[in-house]
Amino acid sequence: MANTKRPVIPMQNPRERVNNFSEVVENLSDEMAKNEAKRCLNCKTKPCVAGCPIAIDIPRFIGKIASGDNLGAYRAIKEYSSLPAVCGRVCPQEKQCEKNCVQGIKSDPIAIGALERYVADKYIFENFAPKASSCQPDRLLKVAIAGSGPAGLTCAGNLANLGYNVTVFEALHALGGVLSYGIPEFRLPKAIVEKEIDNLKRAGVKFETNVVIGKTFSIKDLFSQGFSAIFLGTGAGVPRFMGIQGENLQGVYSANEFLTRVNLMKAYKDDYDTPIKDLGKVIVVGGGNVAMDTARVAVRLGAKETTLVYRRSEEELPARREEIEHAKEEGVKFKFLSNPKKILPNKNGRVCTLLCAKMQLSDIDNYGRRKVVEKKDEVFYMDADTVIMAIGTLPNPILKASEAKLKFSDTGQVIVDQETLMTSIDGVFAGGDIVSGAATVLLAMSAGKRAAKAIDKYLKQHRCAICK
Amino acid sequence: MYTILDKVRLNQTVTKMTIQDEKIAKKAKPGQFVILQVHENGERIPLTIADCDKDSGTISIIFQIVGTTTKKLDNLEVEDGLYALVGPLGNGTIISNYTKAAVIGGGVGGAIAYPIAKALEKNGCEVHSILGFRNKDLIILQDEFKAVSKKVFITTDDGSFGHKGLVTDTLSDQINKGESYDVVFAIGPLIMMKCVSELTRKHNIKTVVSMNPIMIDGTGMCGGCRLMVDGKMKFACVDGPDFDGHKVDFDEIINRNSIYRDIERKSYEKTCNLFNNMPTNI
């Protein structure tokens, strides 16, 4: 009888990790992985697969680990995921595959995420020869991808495997989108992101940095450059602010700016030029994964005190449980049922005080979340030197302003046909946050994967005479 | 990549560089900007496109050495390449059918004002240029402005050339003399654009300012360049960089833009020491 206990996943000690940007969660040992894999019941109904947005054949890869065939397990995952080392780290498994795990009914669910990362980390640096293309003539067909975030990379990887000639355009100087500028090093090491991208390059995907689609090249330009289809995966867009007094003071940041300064521009390192100010007392407003990342980065940058202010209660925090726990272990304080009303400056024009209203929960709204209302006349003040807004994003206006034929919803997202994933322009597809609004890495990857299939189908129908 | 083809010192702290980039040159409109990075560990900084040649596929930038990044940029020579260059970003300046326009440039802001003056003149508008500098050694683009303007006024803070005083003095004089401008374009330090806007508000003259606050990505993602225009939050990179000067909350952006001043000064001193101590033969 195999052990029925889920392994305790090794982790950097909180006291040490608050002083570094090294990865918090460590890898499973060979023995731990094998024992954990043996716990899998290999259910016929595979409920875990149903919970996975990209439908990885989970029991198959776990079975291979159990039998000692780690390479087979890696290949099994790669059939479904272009970025396994990323998924294993940032997927909310507890809400997806692991939530459905039958072992979880009586005991703990299988540590599927940790196992995925275990095999991915073992082989990511192996430089295997890319899969031979099944349809060589298609190489003549060029596909352009706008954005090198999770949606774009997944779409690119899948199309390259199908034999297309894929070029990814990225607005920034570095690749990876949110994986590079958004998610911090201690949760997703940049070496892993770079290696996953390197593996796509070896599979034939080309990358062009410093190109903004809608500015440097229009959709029309891309078609005239010989691309037969275009995938727009340009991400969520502009940061949201609360619209309260004092949001433009010195020391107020959007989470996007703060994280970009640190993760992408490496402001915390002496040999990089991008500055970051002494943080002092930090208040992060919001309760999602971005808010957790922001608070944990602030801790590592030596903030005197880091407090997360969230308008609902702990139960409603949208962030992953694991991130919340890690933030607590690292000393992040939480102020629930509180909503900022005003940010007040000191005499030098820098943030000094945050005025908050006390909130109370009320009925359940249309999205199944508890509504919150302000308690009458109950306000309080908090000391702050830095306030960081992590309350989501609004659509980016660039494509809307530059592409008159591209249709957008009232809320500013690109409209696609639910089945073909095609936008209002023939041959132009879209997916990820630009279509859904801000969501998770995995949903973006899932959209990228579905779009690759849809583009393949479209090109076979319309363009590729040989495959017809 | 992004090779520097030409480098000209316009004065002791202002440099003009011509850079090869067909993609940007093909699309660039007056008023748009690029973001560049001198080296991999460097900052991303926005600079307005001062000129572009679509035939040769080049753009020009004019910058003043004010800190670490511009110092490092100035240290590059012809045939060196930039690490990153992206654009054209922002919206081009709208050159409507104006009859008479005052184009005001403060210091290196003249570099941004020049393509606008040129475009206005090309569109049949009478251009009066008012250029302000600290002293006569810092005057740039005087001939270029003369070529596209009916009148050019130079002001210096110390009176070493032209009128002693501020650009607003000259603008006020012209308005009082009966010049009726349809529009004023003001480009320069925030405080100058604020003062020009306050003056023209009194005379009810439409005023366009070009905002160039702190930016990182330049595509709307970071929100570092936000400012309040008519009580609404705008992002200079995607909504601007041009805004109605009468509606911009200058005090707020002047305050936030000063946040890194002390860090910048230290970093700049370090960079200057580094360059000064470097042997010159390498």
Structure overview:
The complex is a heterodimer of chains A (468) and B (282). Chain A is of the alpha/beta class and 468 residues long. Chain A has three domains: 14-126, Orthogonal Bundle (Fumarate Reductase Iron-sulfur Protein, Chain B, domain 2), CATH 1.10.1060.10; 142-237 and 395-467, FAD/NAD(P)-binding domain (3-Layer(bba) Sandwich), CATH 3.50.50.60; 240-389, FAD/NAD(P)-binding domain (3-Layer(bba) Sandwich). Chain A has helices at residues 14-17, 30-38, 47-50, 58-66, 70-78, 84-90, 103-106, 112-123, 150-161, 178-181, 190-202, 219-224, 255-264, 289-300, 321-329, 398-402, 433-436, 441-462; strands at residues 142-146, 165-169, 206-208, 227-232, 238-239, 252-254, 281-285, 305-309, 333-335, 338-345, 351-364, 370-383, 386-389, 393-394, 428-430. In chain A, the strands form four sheets. In chain A, strands 3-2-1-4-15 form a five-stranded parallel β-sheet. In chain A, a hairpin with a 5-residue loop joins strand 11 (351-364) and strand 12 (370-383). In chain A, helix 5 packs across helix 8 and helix 13 crosses helix 14. Chain A is globular. The termini of chain A are far apart. The mean pLDDT of chain A is 91. Chain B has 282 residues and is an alpha/beta fold. Chain B folds into two domains: 2-89, Elongation Factor Tu (Ef-tu), domain 3; 100-258, Rossmann fold, CATH 3.40.50. In chain B, strands 10-9-8-7-11-12-15 form a seven-stranded mixed β-sheet, sandwiched between helices. Chain B has a six-stranded antiparallel β-sheet with strand order 1-2-5-4-3-6, with helices on both faces. In chain B, strands 13-14 form a two-stranded antiparallel ribbon. In chain B, a hairpin with a 2-residue loop joins strand 13 (226-229) and strand 14 (232-235). In chain B, helix 2 packs parallel to helix 9 (261-276), helix 5 (167-176) packs parallel to helix 6 (190-203) and helix 6 (190-203) runs antiparallel to helix 8. The two termini of chain B are 22 Å apart. The A-B interface holds A 171-173, 181, 209-212, 215-217, 235, 237-239, 241, 243, 247-254, 256-257, 260-261, 264-266, 269, 271-275, 277, 349-350, 396-398, 401 and B 23-24, 27, 37, 41-44, 68-69, 72, 83-89, 91, 216-217, 219-224, 226-228, 233, 235, 238-239, 249, 252-253, 255-256, 258-260, 263-264, 267.
